[in-house]
């Protein structure tokens, strides 16, 4: 197969848990780009927090941010954005307060942590996603069940099944796979020509969607089950080692 794009999650995939990229990963990402492959970052991070990685690797293609809610060009131009409708912002904020759950809210301008003196819907921002978090897993589970029952939102849980530690809340129909599909349409690339790497539950649909979905060795079992194959963990520079193998096979 002639692969035309490599889609890379960041934390726990390309980067370690401290946000650093290994020399081996950086080397092979650069080699892939130099060889003509399209290298795209696909992250739950806000674009501001992705900038150092883009600069370090000298990436030239658009990036997908906030779990697929935005696509930005390498030059910093917005290509696509999906925001939470105000009614949904009201619902999320209400449930967070009722269940005593903290949140981290993402908008175009930046990231805001819980401030109970202000209501999200009363702040003049376009909200992209909200990360709910709590040490009280029962409260978080109850919040999840109520949000899920609305059938208005995309929800991704992190932690043990049935006992989430965090919940990503974002607009209906959004996600890494959906955004990657849009970007491939812009670039004239078929999904069968895409290799995707990921390590967590917000990567599952992307791994299923891509022509070759690769889960990291440090990924939960359900993420590995969604992938076509499993790479070594980020501790072993699994991205770099796997890209090296893909490129060697392409020239064999």
Automatic annotation (TrEMBL):
Pfam families: Hydrolase_3 (PF08282). InterPro entries: HAD-like_sf, HAD-SF_hydro_IIB, HAD_sf. One of its GO terms (cellular component) is cytosol. Transmembrane segments: none annotated. GO terms for molecular function: magnesium ion binding; phosphatase activity. NCBIfam families: HAD-SF-IIB. This is HAD family phosphatase. It comes from Paenibacillus hemerocallicola. The lineage of its organism: Bacteria, Bacillati, Bacillota, Bacilli, Bacillales.
């Amino acid at each position: 197969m002639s692969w035309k794009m490599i889609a890379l999650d960041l934390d726990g995939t390309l980067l370690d848990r401290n946000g650093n990229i290994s020399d081996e990963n950086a080397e092979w990402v650069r080699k892939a780009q130099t060889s003509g492959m399209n290298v795209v970052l696909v992250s739950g991070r806000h674009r501001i927090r992705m900038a150092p990685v883009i600069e370090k690797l000298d990436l030239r293609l658009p990036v997908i941010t906030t779990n697929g809610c935005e696509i930005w060009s390498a030059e910093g131009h917005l290509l696509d954005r999906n925001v939470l409708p105000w009614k949904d912002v009201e619902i999320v904020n209400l449930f967070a307060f009722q269940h005593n759950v903290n949140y981290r809210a993402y908008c175009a301008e930046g990231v805001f942590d819980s401030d109970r003196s202000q209501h999200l819907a009363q702040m003049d921002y376009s909200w992209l996603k909200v990360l709910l978090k709590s040490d009280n897993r029962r409260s978080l589970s109850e919040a999840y069940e109520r949000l899920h029952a609305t059938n208005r939102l995309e929800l991704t849980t992190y932690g043990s099944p049935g006992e989430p530690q965090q919940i990503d809340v974002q607009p209906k129909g959004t996600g890494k796979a959906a955004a990657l599909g849009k970007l491939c349409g812009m670039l004239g690339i078929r999904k069968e020509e895409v290799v995707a790497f990921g390590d967590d539950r917000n990567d599952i649909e992307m791994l299923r969607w891509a022509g070759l979905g690769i889960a990291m060795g440090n990924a939960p079992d359900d993420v590995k089950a969604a992938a076509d194959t499993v790479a070594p963990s980020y501790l072993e520079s699994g991205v770099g080692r796997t890209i090296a193998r893909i490129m060697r096979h392409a020239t064999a």
